[in-house]
Amino acid sequence: MIEAIPLDHVVLVATTLFGIGLYGVLSRRNAVAILMAIELMLNAVNINFIAFSMYVSPDPTVGQIIAVFVITVAAAEVALGLAIVLQIFRNKSNINVDDLDLLRW
Prior knowledge:
CATH class: Mainly Alpha
Shape: elongated
CATH architecture: Orthogonal Bundle
Structural class: mainly alpha
Largest sheet: none
Radius of gyration: 17 Å
Number of strands: 0
Order of helices and strands: HHH
Oligomer: single chain
C-alpha cells in the first residue's frame, strides 16, 4: 500500500499554487494570462478537495467527484472566457485589460 503524504505538505503545495495564481490575477494585464492564473487557482482548490477528502471523509472518492465537477466548470469558464477575449481582440486588436472599457457608460 502507498504511504500517504502528510496533509500539511499537500496544503502547503496547494497554498503555494493558489498564491501564484492570485499573484497572476492581480499583476497581469493580459487577459489570457489572467485566465491561466484563474485555472491555477482552481487546480489548487482541487488539490485541497482531494487531500481533505482523503483525511476527513469516510469515503475518499467524494473529493474526487467534487474535483471533477470543478474541472468541468473550469473548462466551461475557459471556453467562454477565451471566446470573449477573441471577440474583444477582433474588435480592438488588443487584449490588455486596462484598455477595456466596452461596458463603461
